[in-house]
């Protein structure tokens, strides 16, 4: 994904959809490694939310707005 913001967004987009699935308004602790990438572990994990938010902000940093 390095240097390819469109590809990075494509990988992060499912996380936005996940916000309404498993733990409403949060992101699961872990996901299975194979499709369909089912959520596992704690239904709400601070570091999962934080890292996803950090990545979204970094991707959108060059445009001056969130991705």
Question: What are the defining features of this structure?
Answer:
67 residues; mainly alpha; two-stranded antiparallel sheet; 2 strands; globular
Strand content: 5-15%
What's the total number of strands? 2
- SSE pattern, N- to C-terminal: HEEH
The residue-averaged pLDDT reads: 83
In the residues, how many domains can be counted?
1
Poorly predicted regions are: none
Radius of gyration, whole Å: 12 Å
Largest sheet: 2 strands, antiparallel
Number of helices: 2
Gap between N and C termini: 15 Å
Give the helix level as a range of percent: 40-55%
Shape, please? globular
Main sheet strand line-up: 1-2
Structural class: mainly alpha
How is the secondary structure organized here?
Layout: H1 5-18, E1 30-31, E2 39-40, H2 46-60
Antiparallel strand pairs: 1-2
Helix pairs in contact: 1-2
What does this 3D model show about the protein?
- It is a single chain.
- 43% of the residues lie in helices and 6% in strands.
- With 67 residues, the chain is mainly α.
- It has one domain.
- It has a two-stranded antiparallel sheet with strand order 1-2.
- The model has no long low-confidence stretch (mean pLDDT 83).
Structure in a nutshell:
By secondary structure, this protein is mainly alpha-helical. The protein has helices at about 5-20, 45-60; strands spanning about 30, 40.
């Amino acid at each position: 994904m390095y240097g390819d913001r469109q590809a990075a967004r494509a990988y992060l987009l499912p996380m936005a959809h996940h916000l309404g699935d498993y733990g409403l308004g949060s992101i699961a602790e872990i996901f299975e490694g194979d499709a369909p990438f089912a959520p596992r572990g704690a239904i709400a994990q601070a570091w999962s939310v934080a890292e996803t938010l950090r990545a979204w902000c970094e991707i959108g940093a060059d445009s001056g707005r969130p991705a």
